[in-house]
Amino acid sequence: MPREIYAYKCKKCGHVHYPYRMVCRNCGKNEHNEFEPVPLPKTGKLLTFTTLYSLPPDFEVPSLGLAIVALENGITVTGQHRIDEPETGMAVSVEVEIVRRDGYDEHYGMVFYKA
Amino acid sequence: MTVRDVYVIGVGITSFTRLEYPLSEIAAYPAMMAMKDAGTRDIDHLYVANMGGGRVNHQTGLASAVVDTLSLTPAGAETIENGPASGGSAVKTGYMAVASGLHDTVMVTGAERMREVNNLEATDFVATLTHPLAEHIYGVTLPSLAAMFTRLYMEKYGVTERHLAMVAVKNQNAALRNEFAHLQQEISIDGILDSPEAMTNNPYVAELLRFFDCCPVSDGGACVILASEEVAGKVDRPLVRLAGVGQASDTHAVHEREDPTDLLAVRRAAAMAFERAGLTPADVDVAELHDAFTILEIVESEECGFFPKGEGHLALERGETALGGKLPINVSGGLKGRGHPVGATGVAQAYEIVHQLRGEAGERQVDGARVGFTCNFGGFGNNVVCLVFKREN
Amino acid sequence: MPVDLEKILRPVDNPMPPFPAKHMKVASGEEMVIRQVTRDEIPSILPHVAPLVWVERDFYDVVAARVYAELLAFYAHRMQDEYVLVAQIDGELCAVVNGRMVNKDVGMSLHTLAMRRGLRIGAHAFAAKMEYHMDILGQKEVLIVAESPIGFRRWMIEYNLEKRFDIAHELGGVPSWALTKELFDRARDTLVVGRRPVPDELLAKAAAAILPPSDPPTPPEDLLAATRARYDPTGTALVLQRWKQEGKV
Questions:
Q1: Measured between alpha carbons, how far is B8 from B227 in angstroms, rounded to an integer?
Q2: Do B124 and A57 touch (CB under 8 A)?
Q3: I need a labelling partner for A70 at 20 to 30 A (CA). Which of B195, B218, B266, C130 fits?
Q4: Residue-wise pLDDT tens digits, A13-48
């Protein structure tokens, strides 16, 4: 089964949040957990990016691509990118993969590829 | 409710460098200096700003250690943690305590000891203030957020790597006039930008942001003592009033901001501080901005209202932000040159401004400075504290 | 006839082509020269290495003590196929790097000791050393270890070194890392810099005298402070020591 990263849709006003928060940023009206999880879309547009060379000690790679992407439903997300020559505004596709290993824990997150 | 005026009656600081002393001593040393400066040991309450004692130095409840180290018990004491804006937050809390009439004399001391761990761990420690699920798991660090921000800013407003290098050279070389500053090494545009070796001298930390665009990791402490008008009147020091405080927050995850090139928390905190002080950005003679990354000095100089949005780098080009310019920014070296022990920074900015307004800043004195401003930037712009100071006599 | 014991003890060095000196501009805008030194110059380097033995931070103590021993061994002909490069600004000694040729294919990187900090001088000197092994000696790989976290970040991470953990490095027998020709070629553009030939005047100034470093790392005022920083974050050991000195306990 493909893994998903979820955004949270307010059941009162329909505003979609990512990441999760307990009270809707738009209407402020919902009670605790009145959100419907919706999978984030798998395509979007690269807003900005960087290659990070100074990494936390648990990453055993010399550099890491990071990016902020506007997904096709307008939600913006941060994730890793694996694009050789990134350009702002380019179309990207999203995969959900392991992005960090912390001891025995594996963290899944969004990885952007050239669409 | 009536709000009392709040004055700064004493200041103290340590060298910002690698300090091989216990964290509580790093907090206590500037406090001793400040009490000497104010000529009083009569302290009602103590606020200690610190971000990483529990994680980096295995010391929690720092305020209890500091109040006892200084033998100021039974005065009340608490530790204030607000990320890299801990210092500004603690000064603001001290202001509230005096302004409200709860206390007459309050000590605010900030301290951090980050060099106890190696640089990789220190970077990871600061990175824990990013969003745990939406940012931190990807390996996002503060330099990477600043780098992504820089790319957008360059595309939108025409800021170039040369502007960033100009800030780096201005602030790092300004630090040579500050005996407490961490970096005591002159740099030149030629060496970090133009010579054939420059790109190796000054490699990317996170692309578009280079080594000399980032502040060093430092240990250090700073202290200010705040007091009511009645107490301040008895102290034989030039009278500096903490005229206004402002604080604002923004979304935790940076990607959620509507216009990612805006730092709304800075704009709001600065506006609030100016409103409280009854002053405007045009009144400011000297400012200490939070240049943890060179781009931030340019952007904050706009968001705080000193220059129109998108024109901070032009003012930099014209030399307006250098010592001797229209609005000298970070004549202490800023975070870039003085260093950035996260909990101490906000207090150290206040220390510098008080020094400037008292006319005690020596070689780096801004002539006739009457109004000073500080911006202490927490997270990546998600929690910002601004302060306005005014010389009163 | 007495046996010439010295003849037995003294290794015969294999021929090694000299490292051609190069120069570069560092972040401060100053011109730095990196050149190979001869045996005769070692005595003018040793006095600047010795004080660093007492700097208990960033493993300066371990590195300086070992560098001192290696330089002395080189001077006294007690080490096989060693070379020493220095970095100088206006004659002032800024860094010492050394290594050894194990055989025609393999090099052994020994130490990088920077006497001026904050300008990536150590990184430039290390890159020159790798350049010597790869381009001048024409070796296939260089075995490397780091004693400090700073070194680890500079070499293992920036050059993305390969693990050779089955080979014990000459420095303490710890597991080795290796820089291969391929990795070096990849790093060449970004990490290896310098211009040749060095203008005569600049080279003459450097060769004339090895001047003492102007701002070398110094030990903290309280020697124990550094020890405590590594082992005793609470500071109890330091306070106890002070009390002992003051006769309080």
A1: 6
A2: yes
A3: B266
A4: 999 999 998 899 888 877 767 899 999 999 999 999
